[in-house]
């Protein structure tokens, strides 16, 4: 700041001259101390000048309403919301989230640095603070078949970008603890910056080694006990409440019941659909759920503001204090926590503001390339009475590996797996490099009857994944996604019911959130009518069944992967 400008602002801060903008008669949340204090807040140049008693050229009388710092989502993937980044942010900011710490590893796994550049370009001018963590695991493991590889050498060009805060979630924990050269080159490259974790269910010794490598956050805790193991080791736990993984209740209940210090916790969404954001909100939803579970509102607000800011070294955010950015949320009261207004750099967010449309490179809309896919390849031969079954866990993205007797029938002299109400067929088809790789498996707990669901969103390699109870509909669903160059689709009775095209890298729609919301709502309704349980998001849940870094069992184009044993099966019927 130039000295002359500082002198002017100093006079405003001291109340010697009118401030540009003053929020009058507010109950101000001071996140440094965790208390509400009645006072005014003076703002100029998009920054907080001070708190106390002020006069302004423009005054906004809050009449005793509650004024908080803007909320921070400490970990999310913009691509997982299905809409373009500016559209997602335009929706989420209305719910009070003014800062987004994003990891573009979905885009990077499909399109490499072109995908990262897309995220940076799309978020350069949005009315919010968007920071990027450099994807660490592209591909996520050495058994993945994705579209690109991101080495430490390719990351160096991004180090000077002020919006790059550090290294994104390090999913390949074994590479960390076993001292992989390529992984530790990436960790060393971001020495002195934040290095995010992804460390579900590590043993105590492995967790020690993982933390010793300099990783300081994790969003994969699913229960209180494991969260505390991480907190004790100095790992900041980012409590996740998204569309598929809902970990908040289990962790916050433990915090409340045990009177745990909350300094080691923040909030994140990770993966949350635009439809759900529009319906229930964003980080404000995490706050409300935590408070409903008995957490004091002051502690929940600190987790959503200053604790996240401190975690990521954003000293100008997360507080209503002199010199901090004037990102502000006006709440009606502390019971409903209804959001009345949101400000970014002192400017009110207009709910009817038209979202800027930024075109993407044509090559990002040509990413679905499969080879030698026929209906016959979906046939799954029974070579045993028993098979490894992927059993889904309600409300989680973890799975159970169950060795169970499954239904088989004889066709043309050969026994084949026959889906029923309990067991369905699942397949993953490589879609990046025309390799022709494909694997079939058996899933329990999905529940679909009379059709199939397919998606080009399948973490983190984003090959085509399809589940159904008959080969005809599964085949139609896959071919439909080739036609649309990605998306979600439902096939029923030998025809396509409806498709949500996601042509940008097979991950994102550029048709507008209204269209996405309308189509997705119809498709979710149809999916539930086809037997999928209420409260279960079939598309997001399906998308995680190919991610080999999550226990216990996954399906990849190379085979069935048993995560706990770190071994691959060519068929679910293998021992």
From TrEMBL:
Q: Into which EC class is this enzyme placed?
A: hydrolase
Q: Which GO terms describe its molecular function?
A: adenine deaminase activity
* Cited SUPFAM superfamilies: Composite domain of metallo-dependent hydrolases, Metallo-dependent hydrolases
Taxonomy, superkingdom: Bacteria
Q: Does the keyword Phosphoprotein apply?
A: no
Q: Which cofactors does the annotated protein need, by name?
A: Mn(2+)
Q: Which InterPro entries does the annotation name? A: Adenine_deam (IPR006679), Adenine_deam_C (IPR026912), Amidohydro-rel (IPR006680), Metal-dep_hydrolase_composite (IPR011059), Metal_Hydrolase (IPR032466)
> Domain Amidohydrolase-related spans what residues?
66-346
Q: Name one GO biological process term.
A: adenine catabolic process
Give me the reactions it catalyses. Answer: adenine + H2O + H(+) = hypoxanthine + NH4(+)
One Pfam family recorded for the sequence: Adenine_deam_C
Which intervals hold domain Adenine deaminase C-terminal? 402-562
Keywords, comma-separated and alphabetical = Hydrolase, Manganese
- EC number(s) of the enzyme? 3.5.4.2
Instruction: Describe the family membership recorded for this protein in Swiss-Prot or TrEMBL.
Output: Belongs to the metallo-dependent hydrolases superfamily. Adenine deaminase family.
Q: Which PANTHER family match?
A: ADENINE DEAMINASE, N-ACETYLGLUCOSAMINE-6-PHOSPHATE DEACETYLASE
Listed name of the protein: Adenine deaminase
Q: Which gene encodes it?
A: ade
């Amino acid at each position: 700041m130039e000295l002359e400008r500082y002198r002017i602002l100093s006079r405003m801060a001291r109340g010697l001259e009118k401030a540009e903008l003053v929020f009058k008669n507010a109950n101000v949340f001071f996140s440094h101390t965790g208390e509400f204090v009645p006072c005014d807040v003076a703002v100029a140049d998009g920054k907080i000048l001070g708190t106390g008693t002020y006069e302004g050229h423009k005054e906004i009388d809050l009449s005793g309403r509650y004024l908080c710092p803007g909320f921070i989502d400490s970990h999310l993937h913009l691509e997982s919301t299905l809409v373009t980044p500016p559209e997602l942010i335009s929706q989420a900011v209305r719910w009070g989230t003014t800062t987004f710490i994003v990891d573009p590893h979905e885009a990077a796994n499909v399109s490499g640095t072109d995908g990262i550049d897309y995220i940076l370009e799309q978020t350069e001018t949005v009315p919010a603070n968007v920071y990027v963590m450099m994807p660490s695991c592209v591909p996520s493991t050495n058994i993945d078949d994705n579209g690109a590889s991101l080495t430490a050498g390719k990351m160096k060009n991004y180090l000077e970008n002020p919006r790059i805060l550090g290294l994104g979630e390090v999913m390949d924990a074994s590479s960390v603890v076993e001292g992989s050269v390529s992984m530790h080159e990436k960790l060393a490259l971001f020495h002195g910056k934040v290095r995010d974790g992804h460390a579900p269910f590590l043993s105590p010794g492995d967790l020690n080694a993982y933390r010793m490598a300099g990783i300081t956050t994790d969003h994969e805790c699913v229960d209180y006990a494991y969260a505390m193991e991480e907190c004790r080791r100095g790992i900041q736990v980012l409590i996740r409440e998204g569309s598929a993984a809902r970990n908040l209740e289990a962790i916050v209940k433990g915090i409340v019941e045990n009177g745990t210090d909350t300094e080691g916790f923040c909030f994140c969404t990770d993966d949350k659909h635009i439809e759900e954001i529009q319906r229930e909100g964003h980080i404000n939803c995490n706050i409300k759920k935590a408070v409903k579970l008995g957490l004091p509102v002051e502690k929940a607000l600190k987790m959503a503001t200053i604790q996240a800011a401190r975690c990521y070294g954003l000293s100008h955010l997360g507080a209503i204090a002199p010199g901090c950015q004037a990102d502000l949320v006006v709440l009606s009261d502390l019971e409903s926590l209804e959001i009345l207004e949101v400000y970014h750099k002192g400017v009110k967010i207009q709910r009817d503001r038209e979202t800027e449309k930024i075109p993407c490179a044509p090559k990002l809309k040509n990413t679905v390339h499969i080879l030698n896919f026929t209906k016959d390849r979906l046939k799954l031969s029974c070579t045993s009475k028993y098979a490894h079954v992927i059993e889904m866990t309600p409300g989680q993205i973890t799975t159970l590996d169950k060795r169970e007797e499954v239904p088989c029938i004889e066709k043309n002299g050969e026994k084949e797996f026959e889906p029923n109400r309990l067991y369905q067929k699942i397949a993953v088809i490589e879609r990046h490099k025309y390799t022709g790789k494909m694997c079939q498996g058996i899933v329990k707990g999905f529940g679909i009857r009379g059709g199939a669901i397919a998606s080009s969103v399948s973490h983190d390699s984003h090959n085509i994944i399809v589940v159904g109870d008959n080969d005809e509909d599964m085949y139609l669903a896959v071919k439909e996604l080739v036609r649309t160059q990605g998306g979600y689709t439902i096939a029923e009775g030998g025809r396509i019911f409806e498709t949500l095209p996601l042509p940008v890298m097979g991950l994102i729609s550029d048709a507008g959130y209204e269209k996405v919301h309308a189509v997705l709502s119809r498709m979710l309704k149809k999916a539930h009518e086809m037997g999928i349980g209420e409260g279960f998001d079939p598309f997001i849940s399906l998308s995680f069944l190919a991610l080999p870094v999550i226990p216990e069992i996954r399906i990849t184009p190379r085979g069935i992967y048993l995560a706990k044993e770190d071994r691959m099966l060519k068929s679910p019927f293998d021992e």
